[in-house]
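Researcher: Can you fold this with acetyl coenzyme *A in place?
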Amino acid sequence: MANYKVKIKGTGMYVPEKVLSNFDLEKLVDTSDQWIYERTGIKNRRICSTEGGEWPTDMALKATLDALKTAKLEPNDIDMILFGSVTPDYKLPNSATVLQTKLGITNNCAALDIAAACSGFVYGLNMAQSMIKTGMVKNVLVVGSEMLSREVNWEDRNTCILFGDGCGVAIVGRNEDNDESDVISCYLGADGTGKEFFDQPVGGAVEPITTDHLEKKNYFMQMKGKEMFKVATRTLAQNAKRVLEDAGMDLSQVDWLVPHQANVRIIETTGKLLGIEPEKVIVNIDKYANTSAATIPMAFHEAIQEGKIKRGDIVLFDAFGAGLTTGATLFRY
Ligand code: ACO
């Protein structure tokens, strides 16, 4: 069987224009800029327009057009779309096919949504790399795009302060440049027993939204923050160790850790558990809050744009999310 090298050929991101600051939230719920910043590291988040033009697939379209330019590829060079999101445009059809049409792709490429919450992008990337390595596909568009502002109860201070909207994408493909870029090792996992730590039980087949639910406003995402915090730090540290061990490498060889951005204290605690220098950890949660599947591709793209992450660097993506899902990717960019 073929064993092609895999390269991230291009990245892109889009965030909505509207900025919602902690001070704006002070007007909505009983909270303060100081409380939010000290407990989470968040200052601002972006919020999609509900007038249209910034739906999850619109954000993905804008981000992908940039990624295609960097990758020097055309839309029809994409032969699979993996769309990580828990806030799809519609229940049907899936967001990946909506994006396929918006991109003008006419090659009938495969198009699949991945509902793995905050791990959605890493799930997509790891699935993409395995199919590229075996030669089944050549170029995969991996997306993390979320409009969490639709699913958040803006009267619940426990959750509404934490989330934002945004999109990050990567075009991953067969490395034909004869350079060192490759995926070195990766991991995917889940533990369904932690489902009540972060869930949204109303609105699916089991419990459709009724007028009673509308009145009680109990159809939004709900979270047990402390439990999530504990499981997140433990899981992120385990993931990093696991992919490094599989690769026969140690942390000193990693140039950059790009963790899921849920809370700056989770990121710092994970960093301490691993013993990684804080300067090697990419953090942008202050600007965008938790954008679920989009945090890792957005943080990665920004770090490239800022000249931090360079070609040849060893990068570690590390994610966890509702489900509870988790995953990590160790690669040479
Ligand atoms: N503003 C002001 N006070 C608040 C707020 C708020 N927004 N929210 C809670 N409080 C109060 C609480 O009521 C509590 O008051 P009390 O002591 O009088 O009861 C006090 O502040 C402390 O609350 P805690 O819940 O103990 O605060 P904690 O330090 O645990 O921080 C937080 C809460 C930020 C939610 C934290 O637990 C966390 O970040 N958890 C992880 C979240 C996470 O991982 N989310 C992502 C999940 S997966 C995914 O990304 C999709």
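Model: Folded with acetyl coenzyme *A in place. The two ends are 24 Å apart (CA to CA).
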